[in-house]
């Protein structure tokens, strides 16, 4: 090949590279990148899938797992752990359950303990309340629903003497009972299970929703909503079909099946927090529903201490 031919080839090659560079280079500068695009895309996809599952399941079969009128010593439903739940717990091998499940018992918490907790919820929530149908009270942070936002109940002078040392002692004792029950039923080391946030009282009525915090009926997975949740528990503080209508707890399963728990005063439900337990709360149509959510994590760094009454 002659020198002239080689020079011509190199020239043509450079022209092609320059042409390609112009085509790939944005006309108005660098293309912006958004690191959270994938996360948001996944969230949007999850919401879409959950919505489809929810509306399909409404026309499906319903299994009443725990009726309000029944007194249940202990009842469980074994389910397959989701991959997301198992993969997350690889980091915490002593916290991996023997099997994923839903467990209900009416014999763990006494009626006197339940009454103390119900009074805490009623008295505390009097100082706040959402504009919509769902309000919460968190004794750990002091968070209390108020209008469309939250306030700190401990900053309210009238509320500073609202709770007693006995109230907080009962709260701690109930938490300890549930923590040990979860460890026992799921076959894990109780010392590797830590209370986490949010742990809160809830009050639900039939007011129309005003903010996203009021939309309690939307299907969700606890581990997605709250990153550090591994085990979720609910203590019902009053009765379905007596104190309120609606408000049943519904697990949304495959093949258009709903597995339903009817709240009973003093009833505790416990379940793994992964996507194997997609769930929702049925809309309350009348009355007021009270419950206490107590959540646990296997991540010691996400653990919280028991609330302490100052004074």
TrEMBL record:
What name does this protein carry? Fe2OG dioxygenase domain-containing protein
The record's Pfam families line, in alphabetical order, gives: 2OG-FeII_Oxy_3
Q: Where is the Fe2OG dioxygenase domain?
A: 197-300
Please name the PANTHER family in this protein's record.
Answer: 2-OXOGLUTARATE AND IRON-DEPENDENT OXYGENASE DOMAIN-CONTAINING PROTEIN 3 (PTHR14650:SF1), PROLYL HYDROXYLASE-RELATED (PTHR14650)
What UniProt keywords are attached to this protein's entry? Dioxygenase, Iron, Metal-binding, Oxidoreductase
Instruction: Decide whether keyword Metal-binding is in the record.
Output: yes
Enumerate the GO terms in the molecular function aspect.
dioxygenase activity; iron ion binding; L-ascorbic acid binding; oxidoreductase activity, acting on paired donors, with incorporation or reduction of molecular oxygen
Region annotated Disordered sits at 1-21
Query: Is the Flavoprotein keyword given for this protein?
Result: no
What InterPro entries is this protein classified in?
OGFOD3, Oxoglu/Fe-dep_dioxygenase_dom, Pro_4_hyd_alph, Pro_4_hyd_alph_FE2OG_OXY
Q: Identify the GO cellular component terms for this protein.
A: membrane
Cofactor names from the entry are:
L-ascorbate
